[in-house]
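Batch manifest, entry 17 of 40.
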Amino acid sequence: MSGPPPPHEETRADAELARRFRAGDEQALALAYRQWGALVHTLARRSLNDAQDAEDVTQQVFLAAWRGRAGYRPERGALGGWLVGIARHAIADAHAARARRADIENASVAMQEEAAGHWGVDESEAAVLRVLVLQQLRHLTPVQRRLLGMAVYGDMTQVQIAEHEGLPLGTVKSHIRRALHSLRRVMAP
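Output type: structure tokens
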């Protein structure tokens, strides 16, 4: 009759998996995914209520964990707990990206409705606004234009942009925030 292993053996196995993972053993990554992937996916699915977003977050978590494995400190907690912590941040980033997309979509709809309301009555005002926005886009740095374009038109989260561009997440957030503030000043009444 075989049951679950005693807790001390399970702890040793988890510690060994964590050591191998941190050392860069790709088989340990696969084992960690098998052991905690469903948990990460479930957390993301429940929070985001979207299967595709949950899959994206799960992939981001294990990719971020693998890339940042040197930062894992076993003395601070188990590998599973560390992965759950990364998942919580990735889920928060996904919620923030949704909110940004919703804000951008709402602003776009509002601008289109306003422009449609003025169409025929005063289309020169809408044309001036378009020219001002285009001019302001030219004043953004090339990095700001590229990152803002990836966020708006590429529908990428800031985490995805940071990974794609090889930039720290804080740098990406700062560039996008400054670009949006700059555009907002032009579009303010």
